[in-house]
Design goal:
The complex is a heterodimer of chains A (about 400) and B (about 325). Chain A is of the alpha/beta class and about 400 residues long. Chain A has 12 helices and 16 strands. Chain A has 2 domains: about 240 residues, 3-Layer(aba) Sandwich (Rossmann fold), CATH 3.40.50; about 140 residues, Rossmann fold (3-Layer(aba) Sandwich). In chain A, helix 6 links the parallel strand 6 and strand 7. The C terminus of chain B is likely disordered. In chain B, helix 8 links the parallel strand 7 and strand 8. Chain B has an 8-stranded mixed β-sheet, with helices on both faces. A two-stranded antiparallel sheet of chain B has the order 5-6. Classes of the chains: A alpha/beta (about 400), B alpha/beta (about 325).
C-alpha cells in the first residue's frame, strides 16, 4: 500500500496500534494525548480492533494495568503526556526492570506549574532514566512507522524491554499530514505475534517482581543495563527490515547538509523539520551550517553521534527542558560528555527553546546559527546556556 | 488425628500452594489466611501481591514461597495490575491465543495498601467490574515498615505514629469501614473473613471466585508483632474479635446482608483488647467509650441483615420460593 492518506497524526498512530493487533489498551485521558486514545476507543467499539480498552482511573493505574496485561502475555499499549507521565513515573522503572515490552506514546507536553498544555520535553526528561527504549519522532509518518518498529524491537526475546515514542504534543500530534499506511499483510510480515519470554500461567507458575537483598540487586541492574545497551543491534535490524519492507530508512542519528559544516545544529523531535528549512535558507546564502537529528535517545547512540558531529568546531545543542540547577541541560550534558575527549574539543552552544509551547520559527534557528557563526570556537563558560525568546 | 487426615482433605485441598519456610513472624495471622485462601481457590489462579509483609517475606530472590503464578509490582496498584491481568486473559482467550479456562485473578494487599495508598486503584477496579477477587489482609497498621498507623487502625491503638502520650490516647480516629465502602460500589460480593474460622473463610473465598464480576474480601489478620500479643494467641484473638463484635463476620451477596456469626450478646471488649499490648494504656472509661461504638456498629449491621431477611420473606411470598442465588454465567469470555 503506497497511497498517501491525509490524516491527523494521532489518528495515524492509533491506526498503527490497530495494525499491530494490540490486545490491551489501558489509558487515562490527558491533553494532548486524547485523540490517540479516543480513536482507539472507537476502533474497539466498532470491532475493528479486537482488544480490551481498560478505562483506568489514573495514569498510575494505566501503567500498572499494562504491566499486569503484559506480564499475562498480552500485547499492551498506552499513551500519555506531561502530568500523566509524571504520575506513572514510579511504575515506569518497574516495567523496564521486569522486562515487559509495553509500547507507550508520549505526546510531549510541559510540566506544571504554571499549568501548560503545550509542547516541550520537560515531561520525558524528568523520566529520562526509566530504562525504556526511547525514540523521538519528527513527523506523522515516523510516528506511524515507529509504533510498529517499537513493538517489533521491544518484543524481541533478546530485548524484552518497554519503549516510549516521543511525539511532540499539538505541533505534531494534532496536525494533519500525509501518511503512507501499511496493510495487514505487510505488518504480518514485519511484526510476528507476541511470544513472551515468560508469562503468568497456572501451568507454569513463576514468581515475578520479587524482592532482592543487596547481594542480588546489583546483578539484576547490570543485566537490565546490558539489555538496554544491547538492544541497539536489534533496533538497527528493526529499522533495516522496515526499510526492506517500505523503503523508508531510519537511523539513530541523521544528518542534513552536515558535511563540512562549521556550525552544526542538534535537534530532536518535530523541531527537526523546521530547522531543516532554516538550514536550506542559510546554505543558499552560502553559510556553513548543517543539521544533526537525534532519533534514538535511549540507548544513547554515542558512536553514531560522535561521527555525525565529525569535525564541526561549533555545535548548537537544543534542549526542550531545563535541568534546574544542573551544570547544564539534559541533551547538552549528554553531548558535552560525549565530546569530552574530542581533539580539539568543539564549543557547545546550549539553547533552551520552545518551552511550554513558545513558538519556534525558522527565523529563530537562523538567528541562533548566525550568532554561533559569529562566535569563536574556544569553549565558553561551563553551564552557559541561552533561553531563546525569553522576555527579560 | 487419624480422622483429621481422613476428613479434612475432603473439605480442603491437601496440596500446599504457599510453602512453609517463608520469613513471616511467629504467630503471623496473615500467613494462616493466605494458606487457607489459596487452598480454597486451588491451582487455577494468578495472584497479584501488593508491597507489604506478605510480599517481602515470601519472595526474597532467588527463593519463593509461591506454587502459583505470582506477581508483585508496587504498593498501591495491585487492583490496577490485577485489572490488566484479567483483561489480558479475557482478550487472549477471546482471540484464541489461550485456551478458554476459568482462572481466578486475585489481588492481595494489606490495610495500608487498600484503605490508604491503593484506595483509588481499588475503587477504580471495582467500579470497572473486572472479574477478580480483591483480598485485604487487615492487620490494622503499616506493620512491614514498623507499625505505623493507617486509616484502618482502630481507635485507641498504639502505633509508632499514633503513640499514646500526655496529649494522646493513641489512634485518634475510628477504623475506616472498608467492607461497607466496597458494598457501596454495588459489586456482587463483599465479605469479612477470619482465619480463626477456616470453614467460613473457605466458603466465602469459593463464593467470591464463583460470582461473576468483582468480589472484595476483608480478612482480619492478627499481628502479634504489631499488636503486642502473645504469638500463641493469634487464632483465639481472631475469635475474640468476632465474638466481641469488633470484627463482625458477615457477607453482602448481591446487596443481601447476612451476619455469619452473631453471638447474641456481644462478648466484653476487654476480653479482646486486654491481651493486646497496643491497648494497654487505655483506661476503663476509654474501653466503655469504644464498646459503645462497637455495639452501635453491630446493631447497624443487624439492621441491614434484618432488612435483607424482610426482603427475602417478601420475595418468597410473591414467588413461593426464596430468591435464587446468582451464580457465575457460563462463559466469562463471551463478549
Amino acid at each position: 500500500m503506497s497511497k498517501r492518506v491525509g490524516m491527523e497524526v494521532s489518528i495515524a498512530v492509533s491506526e498503527a496500534v490497530k495494525l499491530a493487533d494490540v490486545d490491551i489498551v489501558a489509558a487515562y485521558p490527558i491533553t494532548p494525548q486524547t485523540h490517540i486514545v479516543e480513536h482507539l476507543s472507537e476502533l474497539v467499539a466498532d470491532g475493528d480492533l479486537d482488544a480490551e480498552f481498560v478505562c483506568v482511573e489514573s495514569e498510575h493505574s494505566a501503567m500498572s494495568a499494562v504491566v499486569g496485561s503484559s506480564a499475562a502475555g498480552a500485547r499492551s499499549f498506552t499513551a500519555t503526556a506531561s502530568q500523566g507521565l509524571a504520575l506513572m513515573h514510579e511504575i515506569l522503572f518497574i516495567a523496564s526492570s521486569m522486562r515487559l515490552p509495553i509500547v507507550m506514546v508520549v505526546a510531549n507536553r510541559a510540566l506544571s506549574s504554571p499549568l501548560s498544555i503545550w509542547n516541550d520535553h520537560s515531561d520525558i526528561m524528568a523520566s529520562r532514566d526509566c530504562g525504556w527504549i526511547q525514540y523521538f519522532v519528527e513527523n506523522g509518518q515516523e510516528s506511524f512507522d515507529h509504533v510498529l518498529i517499537a513493538f517489533r524491537v521491544a518484543e524481541d526475546p533478546a530485548v524484552s524491554l518497554p519503549a516510549i515514542i516521543n511525539l511532540d504534543g499539538f505541533v505534531l500530534s494534532h496536525v494533519i499530514e500525509p501518511h503512507i499506511l501499511l496493510d495487514e499483510e505487510e505488518v504480518a510480515r514485519y511484526l510476528p505475534p507476541f511470544r513472551p519470554v515468560s508469562r503468568l500461567d497456572p501451568d507454569h507458575p513463576v514468581t515475578m517482581g520479587d524482592f532482592a537483598t543487596p547481594e542480588f540487586y546489583l546483578e539484576v541492574k547490570k543485566a537490565q543495563e546490558a539489555a538496554l545497551r544491547d538492544s541497539r543491534a536489534v533496533i538497527d535490524r528493526g529499522w533495516k527490515e522496515f526499510a526492506e519492507l517500505t523503503g523508508r530508512q531510519y537511523q539513530a542519528v541523521e544528518t542534513y547538509k552536515a558535511d563540512g559544516a562549521e556550525v552544526l545544529l542538534l535537534a530532536m523531535g518535530a523541531l527537526g523539520e523546521t530547522a531543516s528549512v532554516a538550514i536550506d535558507r542559510m546554505r543558499e546564502r552560502g553559510l556553513s551550517v548543517g543539521l544533526v537529528k537525534l532519533r534514538l535517545w535511549r540507548p544513547f547512540p554515542a558512536e553514531d553521534l560522535r561521527q555525525a558531529l565529525g569535525d564541526a568546531r561549533k555545535i548548537v545543542v537544543l534542549d526542550r527542558a531545563i535541568s534546574f540547577g544542573a551544570a547544564t541541560n539534559p541533551v547538552a550534558a549528554e553531548v558535552a560528555g560525549l565530546l569530552y575527549d574530542a581533539e580539539p574539543r568543539p564549543r557547545i552552544f546550549n539553547m533552551v527553546i520552545g518551552l511550554g509551547g513558545r513558538d519556534v520559527r525558522v527565523e529563530d534557528f537562523e538567528a541562533i546559527l548566525e550568532k554561533a557563526l559569529g562566535e569563536d570556537s574556544a569553549p565558553g563558560p561551563v553551564g552557559e546556556y541561552e533561553l531563546i525568546g525569553v522576555r527579560e | 488425628m487419624e480422622n483429621f487426615n481422613v476428613f479434612v482433605p475432603r473439605l480442603l485441598d491437601a496440596r500446599e500452594y504457599f510453602s512453609a519456610g517463608h520469613r513471616a513472624c511467629q504467630g503471623c495471622g496473615e500467613t494462616v489466611a493466605i494458606r487457607q485462601i489459596l487452598k480454597a481457590v486451588g491451582r487455577n489462579m494468578i495472584l497479584v501481591n501488593a508491597t507489604g509483609c506478605s510480599e517481602i517475606f515470601s519472595s526474597p530472590f532467588p527463593q519463593t514461597a509461591w506454587h502459583i503464578p505470582w506477581i508483585h509490582v508496587a504498593f498501591e496498584n495491585s487492583a490496577a495490575v490485577a485489572s490488566g491481568v484479567e483483561a489480558a486473559l479475557k482478550t487472549l482467550e477471546r482471540k484464541g491465543r489461550l485456551p478458554k479456562r476459568e482462572i481466578c485473578v486475585m489481588a492481595i494487599a494489606g490495610d495500608g495498601a487498600t484503605a490508604d495508598i491503593g484506595f483509588q486503584a481499588l475503587s477504580g477496579a471495582m467500579e470497572r467490574g473486572h472479574n477478580m477477587v480483591y483480598v485485604c489482609l487487615d492487620n490494622e497498621a503499616y506493620m512491614n515498615t514498623g507499625i505505623q498507623r493507617s486509616s484502618s487502625t482502630p481507635f485507641g491503638a498504639m502505633t509508632t505514629t499514633s503513640p499514646p502520650g500526655r496529649l494522646s490516647k493513641g489512634q485518634k480516629t475510628w477504623k475506616k469501614n472498608l467492607p461497607e465502602i466496597m458494598a457501596a460500589h454495588d459489586i456482587p460480593y463483599v465479605a469479612t473473613l477470619s482465619p480463626s474460622y477456616p470453614f467460613d473463610l473457605v466458603r466465602k473465598v469459593k463464593r467470591a471466585v464463583e460470582v461473576e464480576g468483582p468480589a472484595y474480601l476483608h480478612v482480619l489478620a492478627v499481628c502479634p508483632t504489631g499488636w503486642r500479643s502473645p504469638t500463641a494467641e493469634t487464632i483465639r484473638l481472631g475469635r475474640l474479635a468476632a465474638e466481641s463484635g469488633v470484627f463482625p463476620l458477615y457477607e453482602v451477596d448481591h446487596g443481601r446482608y447476612t451476619i455469619n456469626l452473631d453471638p447474641g450478646e456481644l462478648r466484653p471488649l476487654k476480653d479482646y483488647l486486654g491481651i493486646q499490648g497496643r491497648f494497654r494504656h487505655l483506661k476503663p472509661e476509654d474501653l466503655e467509650y469504644i464498646e459503645e461504638r462497637v455495639q452501635a456498629n453491630f446493631e447497624k449491621l443487624r439492621g441491614k441483615a434484618r432488612m435483607t431477611a424482610r426482603e427475602d420473606r417478601k420475595d418468597r411470598k410473591k414467588t413461593g420460593r426464596p430468591r435464587p442465588r446468582q451464580v457465575k454465567k457460563a462463559a466469562r469470555s463471551k463478549k
